[in-house]
Design goal:
A: alpha/beta; Rossmann fold; 4-stranded parallel sheet; 15 helices; globular; B: 4-stranded parallel sheet
């Protein structure tokens, strides 16, 4: 068994080099790569079509041409995604898939289509009335359209067996990541906030079976270590905490990430796609039906808030860091209710604005928060 | 006896609308809050009473009372980034009373995201905070030019589901004959509205386009009511008469005709209207009022699902461009004015591209100005005036060129 730090280094390295990962894959296999925009895309279909699904969650880049398409109050994750399309960073992608989960996303996708015509554009919509059967059927139809577009790209039909196989492969990855986040809460001495984030993020840039194997190997190595709950335990909630400076400051201030409710992280793998109960496309669609705990999925009961409170209890969390993606209206609407619920329970919360293209977060605010909890 | 004007009937119906809602509330009947293009047919056919928070927001904002409620919501943690109607209404829901216009608090809420995705979150919060049922009809975004059958099927199933939820609220079963009747009325009203608006193509246009915003209240609030038709028919007759006489209610000479894209700047309605008049510009076409008319040929749930599947803010870029270019051509516009409405991301995030492409297609100039539908902090009088000046100059230049 490799030492945990050797595996960690491999995953951190992959998380830092998405472009290299993509180019290496294409050079080695001669196959295509498809970019998947946030937040939820059936990447299983890309895998089943023999292509490489790669997560596109923005990044730090100077915004120039994207401003010709969207005003300044566009969230940084999508604004930088468009900029990458325009400045050629995404030139090795053969297609991009966009969901339509918020107003900015549906419009940005349309802009991407006209602004970056060299990359095949695939867009679909999730149903918000997701609990009724017609919602599942609609999503199945949408996934069918995504699949047809991928088939057109590759020139080959994708069989049900291939999709079923992809579901199994992706569920194994989800299982490995659930195992990892559970273990990382019990090994905060060796899993820093940055490392935890990188292990999960690397999954967007690696072939799934290889990522699953490495994560499981890391988990085996962690299980062999004595448990440690070093640091003041916090839960991160929001779209993403992909902000190296902030994650470093969390560690410097003695905070440890015990759990997360981030769209880029735990929300992706909290639930498996059902292994039984219908055709593979239908099972993929059912994932969205059973899915809970995200500002982007219709939730009039605000189940998400109860789920966060449960996690706080389960992991002995001392404070919640709200990682607010700047200009993300779905998250901004949930915030007042979450804030109230946390206040009612006497759980301290810190509101941190996430802007991939802004300067590092204020150390003093995190320091002060660390002193409170 | 003097003839009754459309505006008098309009004002009377509006007053009745709110008065009736209050009376019903006092009688202990359930009151609904609806988003503006919710399929009101199914609510109306069950004889449920309802009001529209968005309309309420227009009135409160135009009467300068929006900051008070926006402050309350922001105090609760709502970001300034959020839709100002939502902030205003969530603030109002804490108070339940406004000096400018009070609407009764809801017992159920009906939300349709064909206008934007934010309304789902806004109404989720109302539902949770007030502990009342939420009825959602989800109209998925159309990346294809026309909505496909899967969308129609999904919406039809939702309408059936929503009817079940509303039957529980109303305490009675849906009378499908009555529903068919309401569907017919809604369609007739939409067409009567369209007919009245079609007179704006005349030269000069018989109406100052800003008046559209007043009449629009009715197509939003009372699309399924027989009484609305009278207003639109009267309005059409008035337009016909004015056109035949070559007259207009636009003050001064209609030197330029522009299309207005986006919601009105309600807190500065007077200023924006006067600035246009001062510059001889009549807004004789707008994407906003027409957004509220929903047309479908067949008075069935399937027909209705098809009609709602294609409502404007669920459409792709190409559809938006074609719509605007067509409207400008039809109404003989010399240019376009785009409201970069800080509240409305669904409108803003494609606006640069839509404006550019529409200008390419029509060959007509455009200007974009920053504003907000309800938050006065989002608008600058000076910037608006400058943008209008700029647009006027280009339009004048182009007219001169064309006249050579």
């Amino acid at each position: 068994m490799s030492a945990y730090n050797e595996i960690l280094d491999l995953l951190i390295d992959a998380a830092k080099h998405p472009l290299r990962q993509l180019q290496t894959f294409k050079a080695r296999t001669g196959r295509m790569a498809v970019g998947c925009f946030p937040e939820y895309v059936p990447a299983e279909l890309v895998y089943a079509a023999g292509m490489f699904p790669i997560g596109l969650w923005g990044g730090q880049t100077e915004i120039s041409r994207a401003k010709e398409y969207v005003p300044a109050f566009c969230c940084s994750v999508l604004m930088s995604g468009l900029e990458y399309g325009l400045n050629g960073t995404y030139k090795d992608l053969d297609a991009v898939i966009f969901p339509s989960l918020c107003d900015t996303l549906k419009c940005l996708s349309q802009n991407f289509k006209v602004a970056v015509p060299a990359i095949k554009h695939i867009q679909f919509a999730h149903p918000q009335m997701r609990k009724i059967e017609a919602g599942v059927q609609f999503l199945e139809s949408e996934y069918g359209r995504v699949l047809s577009a991928l088939e057109e790209l590759s020139g080959t039909k994708v069989s049900d067996e291939a999709i079923a196989e992809a579901i199994t492969v992706f569920n194994a990855n989800r299982g490995a990541l659930r195992r990892f986040v559970g273990l990382s809460a019990a090994h905060t001495d060796v899993i820093s906030p940055s490392a935890r984030h990188a292990v999960i993020k690397s999954g967007y840039f690696m072939e799934k079976p290889a990522h699953t194997a490495l994560v499981n190997e890391l988990c085996d190595a962690l299980e062999a270590l004595p448990e440690s709950k070093k640091g003041k335990r916090v839960l991160l909630t929001g779209i993403m905490a992909d902000d190296e400076a902030m994650l470093r400051i969390l560690a410097d201030c003695g905070l440890a990430v015990a759990a997360d409710d981030l769209a880029q992280e735990t929300r992706q793998f909290r639930y498996d796609v059902p292994e039984e109960g219908g055709a593979p496309l239908c099972r993929l669609a059912k994932w969205w039906q059973i899915f809970e705990g995200c500002s982007l999925a219709y939730d009039p009961e605000k189940t998400r808030i109860g789920m966060i409170l449960d996690e706080v209890e389960k992991y002995g969390v001392k404070g919640v860091v709200v990682c607010m993606m700047k200009f993300c209206d779905p998250e901004e609407y949930d915030y007042p209710l979450l804030k109230q619920a946390l206040e009612d329970k006497g759980i301290p919360a810190l509101y941190m604005e996430i802007d991939q293209n802004a300067e590092a977060q204020a150390q003093t605010r995190i320091q002060a928060f660390s002193e409170i909890i | 006896m003097n003839e009754v004007s459309s505006v008098e009937v309009l004002n009377m119906l509006q007053m009745e609308h709110y008065q009736n809602a209050f009376e019903k509330k006092m009688e202990g009947k359930p009151i609904g809050w609806l988003t503006s293009i919710f399929p009101q047919e199914i609510v109306e056919a069950l004889d449920l009473d309802y009001v529209y928070p968005e309309n309420h927001c227009c009135a409160v904002s135009a009467r300068k009372e929006s900051p008070k409620f926006i402050d309350i919501a922001e105090g609760k943690g709502y970001s300034i980034d959020l839709c100002a109607y939502a902030r205003l209404n969530l603030g109002y829901a804490e108070e339940g009373y406004a000096e400018s216009l009070t609407i009764p608090m809801p017992d159920f809420i009906c939300c349709c995201n064909n206008i934007c995705s934010e309304v789902v979150k806004w109404y989720e919060n109302l539902s949770k905070n007030l502990g009342i049922p939420m009825i959602l009809v989800d109209i998925p975004f159309n990346d294809q030019y026309e909505p496909d059958q899967a969308r129609v099927d999904y919406i039809k199933a939702q309408l059936e589901h929503a009817i079940g939820q509303l039957e529980a609220v109303a305490g009675k079963k849906m009378d499908y004959e009555r529903l068919r009747e309401v569907m017919k009325i809604s369609n007739e009203n939409s067409r009567a509205w369209q007919e009245a608006m079609s007179w704006l193509r005349s030269r000069p246009s018989p109406m100052n386009g800003f008046s559209m915003f007043n009449y629009m209240a009715l197509i939003v609030c009372a699309r399924g009511k027989e009484s609305s038709k009278q207003v639109f028919e009267l309005l059409a007759q008035e337009h016909k008469k004015l056109t035949e006489a070559g007259e207009t209610k636009f003050k001064g000479e209609e030197e330029f005709r522009v299309m207005w894209d986006g919601i009105a700047v309600w807190p500065f309605l007077g200023f924006t209207a006067k600035t246009l008049v001062k510059n001889g510009m009549n807004m004789n076409a707008s994407t906003y009022p027409d957004a509220f008319a929903v047309y479908y040929d067949e008075p069935t749930l399937e027909g209705m699902a098809r009609g709602y599947a294609g409502t404007a803010n669920t459409r792709c870029i190409e559809y938006h461009v074609d719509g605007r270019a067509g409207l400008m051509e039809q109404n003989g516009c010399d240019g376009a004015l785009y409201h970069m409405n800080r509240s409305c991301k669904v409108w803003d995030m494609m606006q640069y591209t839509i404006a550019r492409r529409t200008a390419e297609k029509t060959g007509k100039p455009y200007a974009i100005f920053d504003g907000d539908q309800a938050d006065p902090r989002g608008f600058s009088e000076a910037q608006f005036a400058t943008r209008i000046d700029g647009l006027k100059e280009v339009m004048a230049e182009e007219k001169k060129e064309a006249g050579k």
